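Bit of a strange request maybe. I'm writing a small parser for C-alpha coordinate strings and I need a real example to test against, not something I typed by hand. Could someone generate the C-alpha coordinates for this chain?
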Amino acid sequence: MKAVVFHAIGDIRLDEVSEPSIESETDAIVRLTSSAICGTDLHFIRGTMAGVEPGTILGHEGVGVIEALGDGVRNLEVGDRVVVPSTVACGYCSYCRAGYYAQCDNANPNGPGTAFYGGPKEAGGLNGMQAEKVRVPFANVNLVKLPDEVSDDEAILISDIFPTGYFGADLADIKPGHTVAVLGCGPVGQFTIASAKLLGAGRIFAIDQHEDRLAMARAQGAETVDFSREDPVETVKRLTGGVGVDAVIDAVGVDAQHAHDGPAAGKPAPGEAKDASPAARTDGPAWEAGDAPMQALAWAVEMVAKAGTVSIIGVYPPTDNLFPIGAAMNKNLTIRMGNCNHRKYVPMLVELVRSGQVVPTRILTQREPLAGVIDAYEAFDQRRPGWIKVELQPGHASAEGRNG
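Reply from user aminoacidic:
Good idea to test on real output. This should exercise your parser:
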Protein backbone atom coordinates (compact mmCIF):
# COMPACT_ATOMS: atom_id res chain seq x y z
CA MET A 1 0.00 0.00 0.00
CA LYS A 2 1.03 3.65 -0.37
CA ALA A 3 2.01 5.64 2.71
CA VAL A 4 3.86 8.82 3.73
CA VAL A 5 7.08 7.60 5.36
CA PHE A 6 9.52 9.55 7.54
CA HIS A 7 13.12 8.94 6.46
CA ALA A 8 14.96 11.72 8.31
CA ILE A 9 14.50 15.30 9.48
CA GLY A 10 13.72 17.20 6.28
CA ASP A 11 13.07 13.99 4.30
CA ILE A 12 9.63 12.39 3.82
CA ARG A 13 8.53 10.23 0.89
CA LEU A 14 5.47 8.51 -0.52
CA ASP A 15 6.54 4.86 -0.39
CA GLU A 16 5.12 1.42 -1.05
CA VAL A 17 4.92 -0.38 2.32
CA SER A 18 3.48 -3.60 3.73
CA GLU A 19 -0.14 -3.60 4.83
CA PRO A 20 -0.81 -3.80 8.58
CA SER A 21 -2.20 -6.94 10.19
CA ILE A 22 -3.96 -7.95 13.39
CA GLU A 23 -1.37 -8.34 16.19
CA SER A 24 -3.63 -8.53 19.25
CA GLU A 25 -7.18 -9.63 19.95
CA THR A 26 -8.21 -6.01 20.57
CA ASP A 27 -6.78 -4.73 17.25
CA ALA A 28 -8.67 -3.55 14.19
CA ILE A 29 -7.53 -2.85 10.64
CA VAL A 30 -9.18 0.23 9.17
CA ARG A 31 -9.21 1.01 5.44
CA LEU A 32 -8.80 4.77 5.46
CA THR A 33 -11.03 6.98 3.34
CA SER A 34 -9.65 10.26 4.73
CA SER A 35 -6.52 11.34 6.54
CA ALA A 36 -4.94 14.75 7.09
CA ILE A 37 -1.73 16.71 7.54
CA CYS A 38 -1.37 18.43 10.91
CA GLY A 39 1.02 21.08 12.14
CA THR A 40 2.38 18.46 14.54
CA ASP A 41 3.61 16.46 11.54
CA LEU A 42 5.64 19.51 10.52
CA HIS A 43 7.31 19.54 13.95
CA PHE A 44 8.72 16.08 13.20
CA ILE A 45 10.07 17.06 9.79
CA ARG A 46 11.47 20.35 11.07
CA GLY A 47 13.21 18.58 13.94
CA THR A 48 11.45 20.59 16.64
CA MET A 49 9.92 17.34 17.94
CA ALA A 50 12.68 14.76 17.57
CA GLY A 51 12.66 11.00 17.98
CA VAL A 52 10.66 9.78 14.97
CA GLU A 53 12.38 6.65 13.72
CA PRO A 54 13.12 6.23 9.99
CA GLY A 55 10.46 4.07 8.38
CA THR A 56 7.59 5.39 10.52
CA ILE A 57 4.36 6.12 8.64
CA LEU A 58 3.21 9.65 9.53
CA GLY A 59 -0.27 10.95 10.31
CA HIS A 60 -2.51 10.85 13.38
CA GLU A 61 -5.91 11.72 11.90
CA GLY A 62 -8.14 9.22 10.20
CA VAL A 63 -11.61 8.20 9.05
CA GLY A 64 -12.36 4.89 7.41
CA VAL A 65 -14.13 1.55 7.30
CA ILE A 66 -13.28 -1.44 9.50
CA GLU A 67 -11.76 -4.18 7.37
CA ALA A 68 -10.74 -6.69 10.08
CA LEU A 69 -11.30 -7.12 13.82
CA GLY A 70 -9.58 -9.07 16.56
CA ASP A 71 -11.72 -11.49 18.55
CA GLY A 72 -11.62 -9.23 21.61
CA VAL A 73 -13.46 -6.33 19.98
CA ARG A 74 -17.12 -6.76 20.94
CA ASN A 75 -18.73 -3.38 20.15
CA LEU A 76 -17.92 -3.00 16.45
CA GLU A 77 -18.36 -4.93 13.21
CA VAL A 78 -16.45 -5.28 9.97
CA GLY A 79 -17.88 -2.70 7.59
CA ASP A 80 -18.57 -0.08 10.27
CA ARG A 81 -17.59 3.46 9.33
CA VAL A 82 -15.45 5.02 12.06
CA VAL A 83 -13.37 8.00 13.15
CA VAL A 84 -10.02 7.32 14.84
CA PRO A 85 -9.14 9.56 17.82
CA SER A 86 -5.51 10.66 17.49
CA THR A 87 -4.23 9.52 20.88
CA VAL A 88 -4.39 5.88 21.92
CA ALA A 89 -5.88 4.61 25.19
CA CYS A 90 -6.63 1.26 26.81
CA GLY A 91 -9.91 2.34 28.36
CA TYR A 92 -9.44 0.46 31.65
CA CYS A 93 -6.51 2.00 33.57
CA SER A 94 -7.15 4.58 36.29
CA TYR A 95 -6.21 7.46 33.99
CA CYS A 96 -8.58 6.40 31.21
CA ARG A 97 -11.39 5.88 33.72
CA ALA A 98 -10.84 9.43 34.97
CA GLY A 99 -10.93 10.82 31.41
CA TYR A 100 -7.18 11.37 31.10
CA TYR A 101 -6.92 9.16 28.02
CA ALA A 102 -3.72 10.89 26.85
CA GLN A 103 -1.97 9.64 30.00
CA CYS A 104 -3.02 5.99 29.60
CA ASP A 105 -0.81 3.56 31.51
CA ASN A 106 -1.00 0.76 28.94
CA ALA A 107 -1.28 2.11 25.39
CA ASN A 108 2.35 3.15 24.95
CA PRO A 109 4.60 0.10 24.45
CA ASN A 110 7.69 2.23 25.07
CA GLY A 111 6.86 3.44 28.56
CA PRO A 112 4.80 6.16 30.23
CA GLY A 113 3.58 9.11 28.23
CA THR A 114 1.02 9.89 25.55
CA ALA A 115 0.71 7.32 22.77
CA PHE A 116 -0.35 8.50 19.32
CA TYR A 117 -0.10 7.42 15.71
CA GLY A 118 2.79 8.41 13.45
CA GLY A 119 5.00 9.98 16.10
CA PRO A 120 8.29 9.52 17.95
CA LYS A 121 9.37 6.22 19.48
CA GLU A 122 8.73 7.70 22.94
CA ALA A 123 5.08 8.24 21.89
CA GLY A 124 4.66 4.57 21.07
CA GLY A 125 6.34 4.38 17.66
CA LEU A 126 2.98 3.43 16.12
CA ASN A 127 2.55 3.70 12.37
CA GLY A 128 0.26 6.50 11.33
CA MET A 129 -2.69 7.19 9.07
CA GLN A 130 -1.32 8.98 6.02
CA ALA A 131 -1.73 5.64 4.33
CA GLU A 132 -4.33 3.38 2.80
CA LYS A 133 -4.76 1.29 5.98
CA VAL A 134 -3.88 1.46 9.67
CA ARG A 135 -3.74 -0.91 12.62
CA VAL A 136 -5.72 0.45 15.60
CA PRO A 137 -4.83 -0.99 19.05
CA PHE A 138 -7.56 -1.24 21.72
CA ALA A 139 -10.06 -0.75 18.92
CA ASN A 140 -13.06 -1.09 21.24
CA VAL A 141 -11.99 2.25 22.76
CA ASN A 142 -10.03 3.90 19.94
CA LEU A 143 -12.66 3.72 17.22
CA VAL A 144 -15.89 5.72 17.34
CA LYS A 145 -18.69 4.66 15.02
CA LEU A 146 -20.02 7.40 12.75
CA PRO A 147 -23.69 8.09 12.01
CA ASP A 148 -24.69 8.48 8.36
CA GLU A 149 -25.39 12.20 8.91
CA VAL A 150 -21.69 12.93 9.55
CA SER A 151 -19.64 13.06 6.34
CA ASP A 152 -16.00 12.09 5.94
CA ASP A 153 -15.14 15.77 5.48
CA GLU A 154 -16.68 16.52 8.87
CA ALA A 155 -15.41 13.41 10.62
CA ILE A 156 -11.74 13.95 9.73
CA LEU A 157 -11.88 17.22 11.65
CA ILE A 158 -13.23 15.38 14.71
CA SER A 159 -10.26 12.98 14.73
CA ASP A 160 -7.84 15.55 16.18
CA ILE A 161 -8.18 19.27 15.62
CA PHE A 162 -11.75 19.84 16.83
CA PRO A 163 -11.25 17.88 20.08
CA THR A 164 -7.87 19.57 20.59
CA GLY A 165 -9.45 23.00 20.19
CA TYR A 166 -12.26 22.06 22.55
CA PHE A 167 -9.72 20.68 25.04
CA GLY A 168 -7.90 24.02 24.95
CA ALA A 169 -11.10 25.93 25.65
CA ASP A 170 -12.02 23.47 28.40
CA LEU A 171 -8.61 23.87 30.08
CA ALA A 172 -9.06 27.65 29.94
CA ASP A 173 -12.03 27.31 32.30
CA ILE A 174 -14.13 29.65 30.16
CA LYS A 175 -17.23 30.98 31.87
CA PRO A 176 -20.11 32.78 30.10
CA GLY A 177 -19.01 36.33 29.34
CA HIS A 178 -15.28 35.70 29.67
CA THR A 179 -12.85 37.50 27.38
CA VAL A 180 -10.45 35.06 25.72
CA ALA A 181 -7.39 35.40 23.47
CA VAL A 182 -6.40 32.64 21.05
CA LEU A 183 -2.79 32.69 19.89
CA GLY A 184 -2.54 31.10 16.44
CA CYS A 185 -5.37 30.88 13.92
CA GLY A 186 -4.40 27.70 12.09
CA PRO A 187 -6.72 24.68 12.17
CA VAL A 188 -6.53 24.11 15.92
CA GLY A 189 -6.84 27.83 16.62
CA GLN A 190 -9.98 28.05 14.49
CA PHE A 191 -11.59 25.20 16.40
CA THR A 192 -10.45 26.75 19.66
CA ILE A 193 -12.36 29.89 18.68
CA ALA A 194 -15.43 27.81 17.81
CA SER A 195 -15.15 25.92 21.11
CA ALA A 196 -14.75 29.11 23.15
CA LYS A 197 -17.99 30.31 21.60
CA LEU A 198 -19.69 27.03 22.52
CA LEU A 199 -18.60 27.56 26.13
CA GLY A 200 -20.06 31.07 26.21
CA ALA A 201 -17.05 33.38 25.77
CA GLY A 202 -18.20 37.00 25.54
CA ARG A 203 -15.27 38.30 23.46
CA ILE A 204 -12.57 36.39 21.60
CA PHE A 205 -9.34 37.92 20.32
CA ALA A 206 -7.61 35.99 17.52
CA ILE A 207 -3.89 36.68 17.08
CA ASP A 208 -1.99 35.67 13.91
CA GLN A 209 -0.14 37.26 10.99
CA HIS A 210 -1.73 35.47 8.02
CA GLU A 211 -4.67 37.38 6.57
CA ASP A 212 -6.56 34.31 5.32
CA ARG A 213 -6.52 32.85 8.82
CA LEU A 214 -7.51 36.15 10.41
CA ALA A 215 -10.36 36.47 7.90
CA MET A 216 -11.65 33.04 8.91
CA ALA A 217 -11.44 34.06 12.57
CA ARG A 218 -13.42 37.23 11.85
CA ALA A 219 -16.03 35.12 10.05
CA GLN A 220 -16.46 33.28 13.36
CA GLY A 221 -16.99 36.57 15.19
CA ALA A 222 -13.52 36.94 16.72
CA GLU A 223 -11.75 40.30 17.04
CA THR A 224 -8.52 39.93 15.08
CA VAL A 225 -5.01 41.19 15.78
CA ASP A 226 -2.27 40.98 13.15
CA PHE A 227 1.01 40.81 15.07
CA SER A 228 3.01 41.83 11.98
CA ARG A 229 1.17 45.21 12.02
CA GLU A 230 0.71 45.94 15.72
CA ASP A 231 2.06 44.80 19.06
CA PRO A 232 -0.45 42.13 20.12
CA VAL A 233 0.05 42.57 23.87
CA GLU A 234 -0.39 46.34 23.75
CA THR A 235 -3.40 46.01 21.44
CA VAL A 236 -5.21 43.42 23.56
CA LYS A 237 -4.60 45.41 26.72
CA ARG A 238 -5.82 48.62 25.08
CA LEU A 239 -8.98 46.91 23.86
CA THR A 240 -9.66 45.50 27.34
CA GLY A 241 -9.22 48.78 29.23
CA GLY A 242 -5.72 47.86 30.33
CA VAL A 243 -6.89 44.75 32.20
CA GLY A 244 -6.00 41.97 29.78
CA VAL A 245 -8.07 38.88 29.02
CA ASP A 246 -9.48 36.30 31.42
CA ALA A 247 -7.79 33.45 29.57
CA VAL A 248 -5.23 32.93 26.82
CA ILE A 249 -5.03 29.73 24.76
CA ASP A 250 -1.71 28.93 23.09
CA ALA A 251 -2.60 27.04 19.90
CA VAL A 252 0.85 27.58 18.34
CA GLY A 253 3.58 25.61 20.08
CA VAL A 254 7.30 25.33 19.51
CA ASP A 255 7.31 26.51 15.88
CA ALA A 256 6.08 29.99 16.77
CA GLN A 257 7.24 32.92 14.65
CA HIS A 258 8.55 36.24 15.96
CA ALA A 259 7.13 39.39 14.38
CA HIS A 260 9.31 40.44 11.45
CA ASP A 261 7.41 43.66 10.76
CA GLY A 262 5.52 46.22 12.82
CA PRO A 263 6.05 47.46 16.39
CA ALA A 264 6.55 43.98 17.88
CA ALA A 265 9.45 43.28 15.50
CA GLY A 266 11.71 45.64 17.42
CA LYS A 267 11.53 43.57 20.57
CA PRO A 268 13.98 40.66 21.12
CA ALA A 269 12.75 37.25 20.00
CA PRO A 270 12.21 35.10 23.10
CA GLY A 271 14.43 32.06 22.65
CA GLU A 272 15.89 30.32 19.62
CA ALA A 273 14.73 27.11 17.97
CA LYS A 274 17.75 25.11 19.11
CA ASP A 275 17.19 26.25 22.69
CA ALA A 276 13.95 24.30 22.62
CA SER A 277 15.05 21.39 20.44
CA PRO A 278 18.72 20.81 19.53
CA ALA A 279 17.70 18.91 16.36
CA ALA A 280 15.68 21.81 14.93
CA ARG A 281 16.39 22.82 11.32
CA THR A 282 17.28 26.51 11.26
CA ASP A 283 18.28 27.01 7.62
CA GLY A 284 17.33 25.81 4.17
CA PRO A 285 14.49 26.54 1.75
CA ALA A 286 12.00 24.24 3.49
CA TRP A 287 11.18 22.53 6.79
CA GLU A 288 12.68 25.40 8.79
CA ALA A 289 11.80 25.64 12.49
CA GLY A 290 10.01 28.67 13.88
CA ASP A 291 12.36 31.43 14.97
CA ALA A 292 10.89 32.11 18.44
CA PRO A 293 9.81 28.94 20.27
CA MET A 294 8.73 30.85 23.38
CA GLN A 295 6.88 33.63 21.55
CA ALA A 296 3.32 32.43 22.15
CA LEU A 297 4.07 31.66 25.81
CA ALA A 298 5.65 35.07 26.40
CA TRP A 299 2.71 36.91 24.84
CA ALA A 300 0.23 34.70 26.73
CA VAL A 301 1.71 35.54 30.12
CA GLU A 302 1.89 39.25 29.24
CA MET A 303 -1.65 39.70 27.86
CA VAL A 304 -3.63 37.65 30.39
CA ALA A 305 -5.14 39.49 33.35
CA LYS A 306 -3.82 39.01 36.86
CA ALA A 307 -5.15 35.75 38.35
CA GLY A 308 -6.12 34.68 34.83
CA THR A 309 -5.61 31.33 33.11
CA VAL A 310 -3.15 30.27 30.41
CA SER A 311 -4.13 27.12 28.49
CA ILE A 312 -1.35 25.49 26.46
CA ILE A 313 -2.29 23.04 23.71
CA GLY A 314 0.46 23.97 21.25
CA VAL A 315 3.02 21.15 21.03
CA TYR A 316 6.33 21.54 22.88
CA PRO A 317 9.07 18.86 22.99
CA PRO A 318 10.35 17.35 26.25
CA THR A 319 13.66 19.17 25.68
CA ASP A 320 11.98 22.60 25.86
CA ASN A 321 12.47 24.26 29.25
CA LEU A 322 11.72 27.84 28.13
CA PHE A 323 8.90 29.41 30.14
CA PRO A 324 8.50 32.84 31.82
CA ILE A 325 7.82 31.28 35.20
CA GLY A 326 8.72 34.39 37.21
CA ALA A 327 6.26 36.65 35.42
CA ALA A 328 3.54 34.00 35.63
CA MET A 329 4.09 33.40 39.34
CA ASN A 330 4.00 37.08 40.19
CA LYS A 331 0.66 37.51 38.38
CA ASN A 332 -0.94 34.59 40.28
CA LEU A 333 -1.68 32.82 37.00
CA THR A 334 -3.19 29.40 36.60
CA ILE A 335 -1.32 27.38 33.95
CA ARG A 336 -3.08 24.34 32.46
CA MET A 337 -1.68 22.31 29.61
CA GLY A 338 -1.26 18.93 28.01
CA ASN A 339 -1.97 16.54 25.20
CA CYS A 340 -5.62 16.29 24.26
CA ASN A 341 -7.67 13.48 25.81
CA HIS A 342 -9.31 12.88 22.43
CA ARG A 343 -11.50 9.95 23.39
CA LYS A 344 -13.14 12.07 26.10
CA TYR A 345 -14.47 14.58 23.57
CA VAL A 346 -14.91 12.74 20.25
CA PRO A 347 -18.32 11.12 20.93
CA MET A 348 -19.76 14.45 22.12
CA LEU A 349 -18.39 16.31 19.09
CA VAL A 350 -19.73 13.67 16.71
CA GLU A 351 -23.19 14.31 18.18
CA LEU A 352 -22.80 18.11 17.90
CA VAL A 353 -22.00 17.71 14.22
CA ARG A 354 -24.72 15.11 13.61
CA SER A 355 -27.33 17.41 15.12
CA GLY A 356 -26.15 20.38 13.07
CA GLN A 357 -25.06 22.48 16.05
CA VAL A 358 -21.56 22.77 14.58
CA VAL A 359 -20.53 22.75 10.89
CA PRO A 360 -16.79 21.94 11.04
CA THR A 361 -16.20 21.84 7.28
CA ARG A 362 -15.98 25.64 7.18
CA ILE A 363 -12.40 25.15 8.39
CA LEU A 364 -11.28 22.59 5.78
CA THR A 365 -9.61 24.39 2.89
CA GLN A 366 -7.77 21.92 0.69
CA ARG A 367 -8.28 18.35 -0.47
CA GLU A 368 -5.62 16.31 -2.18
CA PRO A 369 -5.29 12.69 -3.34
CA LEU A 370 -2.65 10.66 -1.52
CA ALA A 371 -0.51 10.80 -4.68
CA GLY A 372 -0.12 14.57 -4.20
CA VAL A 373 0.74 14.42 -0.52
CA ILE A 374 4.37 15.59 -0.72
CA ASP A 375 3.35 18.73 -2.63
CA ALA A 376 0.61 19.30 -0.06
CA TYR A 377 3.15 18.98 2.75
CA GLU A 378 5.44 21.52 1.11
CA ALA A 379 2.59 23.99 0.65
CA PHE A 380 1.52 23.57 4.27
CA ASP A 381 5.12 24.01 5.44
CA GLN A 382 5.46 27.25 3.49
CA ARG A 383 2.18 28.54 4.98
CA ARG A 384 0.76 29.36 1.55
CA PRO A 385 -2.56 31.24 1.72
CA GLY A 386 -5.54 28.93 1.94
CA TRP A 387 -3.59 25.93 3.20
CA ILE A 388 -5.16 25.94 6.63
CA LYS A 389 -6.03 22.26 6.63
CA VAL A 390 -5.09 19.55 4.17
CA GLU A 391 -7.30 16.49 3.90
CA LEU A 392 -5.78 13.48 2.19
CA GLN A 393 -8.06 11.07 0.40
CA PRO A 394 -6.27 7.70 0.12
CA GLY A 395 -8.98 6.16 -2.03
CA HIS A 396 -9.49 9.05 -4.45
CA ALA A 397 -7.71 9.81 -7.70
CA SER A 398 -8.60 13.47 -8.03
CA ALA A 399 -8.37 16.58 -5.86
CA GLU A 400 -10.65 19.43 -4.98
CA GLY A 401 -9.70 22.63 -3.21
CA ARG A 402 -10.99 25.94 -1.95
CA ASN A 403 -9.35 28.79 -0.10
CA GLY A 404 -10.23 29.66 3.46
